Amino acid sequence: MLGPGRPPAKQLTNLHELLERVYHLLRSEAPAGVTVDRDYDPSLPALTVDPNHIIQAMLNLGRNALQALSGGAVHSPRLILRTRAAGNVSLGAGRHRQVASIQFEDNGPGVLSELRETIFYPLVSGRADGTGLGLGIAQDLVSRHGGLIEFDSAPGRTIFVISLPMDCA
Questions:
Q1: What does 77-114 look like in DSSP terms, one character per residue?
Q2: 117, 75 Cβ separation under 8 angstroms
Q3: How far apart are CA 138 and CA 117, in angstroms?
Q4: What Å distances lie between residue 153 and 38, 87, 96, CA to CA?
Q5: What is the pLDDT of residues 35-69, one digit of tens each?
Q6: Domains of the chain by start residue, with CATH
Q7: Are the beta carbons of 71 and 129 closer than 8 angstroms?
Q8: Which one in 18, 62, 154, 168 has a CA-CA gap of 20 to 30 Å to 53?
Protein backbone atom coordinates (compact mmCIF):
# COMPACT_ATOMS: atom_id res chain seq x y z
CA MET A 1 0.00 0.00 0.00
CA LEU A 2 2.85 2.40 0.79
CA GLY A 3 5.07 1.39 -2.12
CA PRO A 4 4.81 2.51 -5.73
CA GLY A 5 1.63 1.50 -7.49
CA ARG A 6 3.28 0.93 -10.83
CA PRO A 7 6.08 -1.27 -12.10
CA PRO A 8 9.45 0.42 -12.63
CA ALA A 9 9.70 2.56 -15.77
CA LYS A 10 13.27 1.51 -16.55
CA GLN A 11 15.59 3.43 -18.82
CA LEU A 12 19.33 3.60 -19.38
CA THR A 13 20.56 5.87 -16.60
CA ASN A 14 23.82 7.30 -15.34
CA LEU A 15 23.78 6.51 -11.59
CA HIS A 16 26.07 9.42 -10.87
CA GLU A 17 23.55 11.89 -12.30
CA LEU A 18 20.94 10.48 -9.91
CA LEU A 19 23.37 10.51 -7.02
CA GLU A 20 24.32 14.13 -7.74
CA ARG A 21 20.66 15.12 -7.40
CA VAL A 22 20.49 13.25 -4.10
CA TYR A 23 23.79 14.80 -2.97
CA HIS A 24 22.52 18.35 -3.54
CA LEU A 25 19.24 17.64 -1.76
CA LEU A 26 21.02 16.09 1.21
CA ARG A 27 23.49 18.97 1.45
CA SER A 28 20.60 21.42 1.56
CA GLU A 29 18.85 19.37 4.28
CA ALA A 30 21.95 18.62 6.35
CA PRO A 31 21.99 20.13 9.84
CA ALA A 32 24.63 22.78 10.51
CA GLY A 33 28.05 21.20 10.97
CA VAL A 34 27.27 17.99 9.07
CA THR A 35 29.53 17.42 6.06
CA VAL A 36 28.22 15.56 3.01
CA ASP A 37 30.97 14.28 0.69
CA ARG A 38 31.18 12.29 -2.54
CA ASP A 39 33.53 9.53 -3.66
CA TYR A 40 32.44 8.22 -7.05
CA ASP A 41 33.91 5.52 -9.28
CA PRO A 42 33.77 7.14 -12.74
CA SER A 43 34.11 3.76 -14.48
CA LEU A 44 30.58 2.62 -13.58
CA PRO A 45 28.50 2.12 -16.72
CA ALA A 46 24.95 3.34 -17.16
CA LEU A 47 22.29 0.98 -15.77
CA THR A 48 18.75 0.26 -16.83
CA VAL A 49 16.70 1.44 -13.84
CA ASP A 50 13.71 3.58 -12.97
CA PRO A 51 15.41 6.86 -12.01
CA ASN A 52 12.58 7.95 -9.71
CA HIS A 53 12.62 4.68 -7.77
CA ILE A 54 16.38 4.70 -7.30
CA ILE A 55 16.43 8.39 -6.31
CA GLN A 56 13.75 7.71 -3.69
CA ALA A 57 15.67 4.73 -2.29
CA MET A 58 18.89 6.77 -2.11
CA LEU A 59 17.11 9.71 -0.49
CA ASN A 60 15.64 7.43 2.17
CA LEU A 61 19.09 6.08 3.05
CA GLY A 62 20.72 9.52 2.98
CA ARG A 63 18.05 11.13 5.12
CA ASN A 64 18.31 8.35 7.70
CA ALA A 65 22.05 8.94 7.87
CA LEU A 66 21.56 12.69 8.34
CA GLN A 67 19.09 12.04 11.14
CA ALA A 68 21.61 9.76 12.84
CA LEU A 69 24.22 12.51 12.63
CA SER A 70 22.01 15.31 13.97
CA GLY A 71 21.81 16.25 17.61
CA GLY A 72 25.44 17.17 18.20
CA ALA A 73 26.55 13.87 19.79
CA VAL A 74 28.97 13.11 16.92
CA HIS A 75 32.32 14.88 16.59
CA SER A 76 32.76 16.13 12.99
CA PRO A 77 29.62 14.42 11.63
CA ARG A 78 30.11 13.23 8.06
CA LEU A 79 28.12 11.40 5.40
CA ILE A 80 29.93 9.99 2.36
CA LEU A 81 28.12 9.02 -0.84
CA ARG A 82 30.29 6.47 -2.64
CA THR A 83 30.00 4.31 -5.76
CA ARG A 84 32.04 1.26 -6.60
CA ALA A 85 31.87 -1.79 -8.83
CA ALA A 86 31.80 -5.12 -7.03
CA GLY A 87 32.41 -8.49 -8.63
CA ASN A 88 30.94 -11.95 -8.20
CA VAL A 89 28.06 -10.91 -5.94
CA SER A 90 24.97 -12.90 -4.91
CA LEU A 91 21.72 -10.95 -4.91
CA GLY A 92 18.85 -13.13 -3.82
CA ALA A 93 18.99 -16.39 -5.75
CA GLY A 94 21.13 -14.93 -8.55
CA ARG A 95 24.86 -14.50 -8.88
CA HIS A 96 26.18 -11.53 -10.85
CA ARG A 97 29.59 -10.97 -12.39
CA GLN A 98 29.39 -7.28 -11.57
CA VAL A 99 27.11 -5.03 -9.56
CA ALA A 100 27.00 -1.32 -8.93
CA SER A 101 27.53 -0.59 -5.25
CA ILE A 102 26.05 2.69 -3.99
CA GLN A 103 27.19 3.33 -0.44
CA PHE A 104 26.00 5.71 2.27
CA GLU A 105 28.60 5.81 5.04
CA ASP A 106 28.29 7.91 8.18
CA ASN A 107 30.24 8.27 11.40
CA GLY A 108 27.17 8.35 13.64
CA PRO A 109 26.25 6.23 16.65
CA GLY A 110 25.31 3.13 14.64
CA VAL A 111 22.19 1.02 14.34
CA LEU A 112 20.77 -0.16 17.67
CA SER A 113 21.50 -3.86 18.20
CA GLU A 114 17.83 -4.62 18.90
CA LEU A 115 16.87 -3.25 15.45
CA ARG A 116 19.45 -5.07 13.33
CA GLU A 117 17.27 -8.06 12.44
CA THR A 118 14.09 -6.07 11.73
CA ILE A 119 15.37 -2.73 10.43
CA PHE A 120 13.85 -3.20 6.95
CA TYR A 121 10.43 -4.22 8.30
CA PRO A 122 7.58 -1.71 8.05
CA LEU A 123 6.93 0.44 11.12
CA VAL A 124 10.32 -0.37 12.72
CA SER A 125 12.18 2.77 13.75
CA GLY A 126 14.95 3.68 16.14
CA ARG A 127 13.59 7.21 16.56
CA ALA A 128 10.63 8.25 18.69
CA ASP A 129 9.31 10.42 15.84
CA GLY A 130 10.20 7.95 13.05
CA THR A 131 7.57 6.27 10.90
CA GLY A 132 9.60 3.14 10.18
CA LEU A 133 8.74 3.30 6.50
CA GLY A 134 11.84 4.68 4.78
CA LEU A 135 14.09 1.60 4.77
CA GLY A 136 11.28 -0.81 3.92
CA ILE A 137 10.24 1.31 0.96
CA ALA A 138 13.86 1.70 -0.15
CA GLN A 139 14.38 -2.08 0.00
CA ASP A 140 11.21 -2.68 -2.01
CA LEU A 141 12.20 -0.15 -4.69
CA VAL A 142 15.69 -1.64 -5.03
CA SER A 143 14.39 -5.23 -5.07
CA ARG A 144 12.16 -4.31 -8.04
CA HIS A 145 15.43 -3.81 -9.92
CA GLY A 146 16.90 -7.15 -8.87
CA GLY A 147 18.99 -5.43 -6.22
CA LEU A 148 19.44 -5.49 -2.48
CA ILE A 149 20.20 -3.13 0.39
CA GLU A 150 22.50 -4.36 3.15
CA PHE A 151 24.23 -2.63 6.04
CA ASP A 152 27.12 -2.93 8.43
CA SER A 153 27.11 -0.86 11.57
CA ALA A 154 29.19 -0.09 14.62
CA PRO A 155 29.46 3.09 16.67
CA GLY A 156 31.41 5.57 14.55
CA ARG A 157 30.82 3.81 11.21
CA THR A 158 27.58 2.74 9.58
CA ILE A 159 27.39 1.89 5.92
CA PHE A 160 24.25 1.09 3.93
CA VAL A 161 24.91 -0.38 0.49
CA ILE A 162 22.55 -0.54 -2.47
CA SER A 163 23.71 -3.29 -4.84
CA LEU A 164 22.24 -3.26 -8.35
CA PRO A 165 23.13 -5.77 -11.05
CA MET A 166 24.90 -4.10 -13.93
CA ASP A 167 22.92 -6.29 -16.28
CA CYS A 168 19.47 -5.46 -14.85
CA ALA A 169 16.87 -4.79 -17.48
A1: -EEEEEEEEEEEEEETTEEEEEEEEEEEEE-SS---GG
A2: no
A3: 16
A4: 20, 22, 25
A5: 999 999 999 999 999 999 999 999 999 999 998 89
A6: 11-165 (3.30.565.10)
A7: no
A8: 154
